[in-house]
Amino acid sequence: MSIWWSLHLRREAASVPLARRFLLGTMESAGVDPDISFDLSLALSEACANAVEHGGAQGGTGDATETWDAWEEPAGAASGQYRVTAYLDGEKCRIEVADSGPGFPARRALRTAAQQHETEQPYESKQQHCTPQYAEHPPLTAEDGRGLCLIEELADHVHFGNRPGHGGALVSFDKVLKWREGALLMVS
Q1: Are 56 and 79 a contacting pair, CB within 8 Å?
Q2: How far is CA 24 from the centre of its chain?
Q3: If residue 18 lies in a helix (H) or strand (E), which one and from where to where?
Q4: pLDDT of 78-94, one tens digit each?
Q5: Which residues pair with residue 36 across a beta bridge?
Q6: Global pTM?
Q7: Can you tell me the distance from the alpha carbon of 129 to that of 138, in angstroms, rounded to the nearest whole number?
Q8: Distance between CA atoms of residues 53 and 71, nearest Å
Q9: What is the pLDDT of residue 147?
Q10: Which among 136, 146, 142, 174 is positioned nearest to 50, based on CA atoms?
Q11: Which contiguous run of DSSP H or E holds residue 158?
Q12: CA of 172: how far to CAs of 21, 116, 119, 127, 181, in Å?
């Protein structure tokens, strides 16, 4: 047995705990180990917070009231929304968060920014940063900017990219599941 669900959420701060609670409830019902559930819920919270903060219009004025068809990709003008999709099966959980914002900058530009930042810092502080696939390193004193690093640390496989043909960012990550004894979805 497997479980699949998708939520279309408004880009509002209140949507982040809603998505997290939905995921936690699903994993609790299925019998996923609480430590795995916590890791995935924290990673999901970071991905949703990024969609809320950065997933807006692509340099233009989008109609925030436009809705997405439940079976189609969100339109570029649906800047007031983002989508969370989760797949749980007997072996792993895969989560995707898609928005309709400007997406991630080109990889070359990010590496250049990260390399520039590294040359500005002493060697000791460079060792305290994670090296995410796309993000530049935040300064140690920054109050934000560590979400992508956290997602990479909490999940087994992570992909940060842009949605081809639609615009917007797509963050997907998965984690091998551990089960409580007597779990509903446990692999036989």
Answers
A1: yes
A2: 15
A3: helix 15-30
A4: 568 999 999 998 899 99
A5: none
A6: 0.73
A7: 8
A8: 25
A9: 86
A10: 146
A11: strand 157-162
A12: 18, 27, 30, 26, 28
